[in-house]
């Protein structure tokens, strides 16, 4: 178990990303800044994808896989600490990444515990999630996207152009996370942290 924990994700790995964010002058409009945040998010999604795959291959039991995902979630959703002038902005940017990943964690847990949701076109899940958000039923909105996430893990593909029609909010953030999950499931290669 301890060996597996080292393999999937570590607090040190997350902290390395946080340190990189702390060192950079981040501007979300800047391509390099946006890429750094996306890599950080993709890296966590890849860890989740590897845990799900290990469960499917039979190398991790259901309980062990759920425990691993809980471990990654605890690391990733912990409050980052920054020093310097633009602390608030960086905390806000990391918060966006964390919000996006919430849906990834739930989708993986749901998939491991209950299997994929009913096969429905993924765009329909997104549509009803967006409607639920407009009605301020955020639990339902998250639930629909978690179901979509289980279908993505199963191999369905979500056309991310659907996100362009959705107003910015939690659903668009969660969709961003599902985009990372989709990439991670199709190509679970570790995002290399660039050496200085």
From TrEMBL:
The source's domain of life comes to Archaea
* InterPro entries, per database record: UCP022079
Against Pfam families, the record matches this protein to: DUF2150
This protein is called: DUF2150 domain-containing protein
């Amino acid at each position: 178990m301890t060996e597996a924990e080292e393999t999937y994700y570590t607090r040190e790995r997350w902290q390395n990303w946080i340190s990189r964010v702390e060192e950079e002058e981040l501007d979300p409009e800047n391509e390099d800044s946006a890429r750094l945040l996306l890599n950080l998010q993709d890296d966590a999604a890849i860890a989740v994808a590897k845990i799900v795959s290990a469960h499917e291959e039979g190398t991790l039991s259901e309980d062990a896989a759920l425990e691993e995902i809980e471990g990654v979630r605890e690391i990733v959703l912990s409050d980052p600490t920054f020093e310097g002038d633009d602390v608030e902005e960086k905390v806000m940017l990391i918060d966006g990444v964390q919000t996006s990943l919430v849906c990834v964690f739930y989708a993986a847990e749901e998939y491991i515990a209950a299997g994929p949701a009913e096969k429905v076109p993924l765009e329909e899940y997104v549509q009803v999630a967006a409607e639920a958000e407009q009605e301020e039923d955020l639990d339902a909105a998250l639930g629909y996207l978690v179901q979509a996430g289980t279908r993505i893990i199963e191999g369905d593909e979500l056309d991310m152009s659907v996100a362009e029609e959705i107003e910015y909010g939690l659903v668009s953030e969660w969709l961003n996370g599902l985009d990372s999950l989709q990439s991670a499931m199709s190509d679970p290669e570790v995002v290399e942290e660039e050496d200085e």
